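User: Some background: our group keeps a shared notebook of sequences we're curious about, and every so often someone picks one and asks for a predicted structure to add to the entry. Today it's my turn. The entry only has the sequence so far, pasted here. Could you supply the structure so I can complete it?
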Amino acid sequence: MNSVGFSRRAVLAGGASAALMAGLPRAQAADGKIRFLTSWFAEAEHGGFYQAKATGLYKAAGLDVEIQMGGPQVNMMQLLTGGGCDLCMGYDIQMLSSVEKNLPVTTVATSFQFDLSIIMAHQDIKSLADLKGHKILISSSSRATFWPWLVKKYGYTDDMASPYAFNLQPFIHDPSLSVQGYVSSKPFEARKLGVARKVFLLADEGYPPYGSTVITTNGMIAQNPQVVQAFVKATLEGWKSYMHDPAPGNKLIQADNPKMGDDLLGFGVKTLQEIDAVGRGDAKTKGIGTMTDARWKGTYDFLVAGGLLKASTDWKKAFTTQFTEHLHIMMA
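Assistant: Of course. Here's the predicted structure to add to the notebook entry:
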């Protein structure tokens, strides 16, 4: 679950050649036929989309939505700009990189008000600052996402970053190690193995990106804005519904991904509820799915400071609030 893939895994995928495809929407989109591509195999982090389909929210909005699963070999940005899907899940860092490359794409909403990335340590660790000088297992893609942020914030050094093969055994057997993960999955794995752990949600420490955003092409926005609007509204209503009663969405998730057991799926949903991933922060006053200039500027700033993005990149082109700012869909 959420181990290697696109939206939070290979975030800088997709080259400038994709821009040549123009990202034009399919004619069918005008009739409400939508192909939405997720970031990974179906899981709790996709629950709002599956809930909107399962409960008829998409249908009521005049949409015929086909949810397609991503995976480790799926280049979502290439599929989106090449016409292989109409909308897909995204990630702020990948989106800003795409803007730097002049790809015709835009973020139109977010599922979660923060990224779900964590550092999982042993129980004697009291804070992320305590990890300075210790080895932390991270993936290669994380060196272009949260690692530069940790280096700047806590004075970590690159020799602390050790390769992570998505196997918890080294962490289990070496109490000096910590490991990256996602709050809705990695702690579950550790618990099943009987390992006591301390979980640090990077968002609680100020890590600025959103989580599980919705992106589409500029052509789709220009030619079918009413379809994009309908999809965003139904999806956000789906997230509200899923956080209150996930059963309908979970049924479809398990139909698409039979390997998603009840225990792991239940843990994922409970965690999303406990940390208020959908409704916290700006969503409490502006409505779920909302995004702000300040948050996007924060991500831009740390990428530029880390040498991961050109300062000349127009970060405001990475997103639009036109599809969320008037909705005010509240969790309560």
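Suggested note for the entry: The chain is about 35% helix and 15% strand. The CA atoms of residues 39 and 70 lie 5 Å apart.
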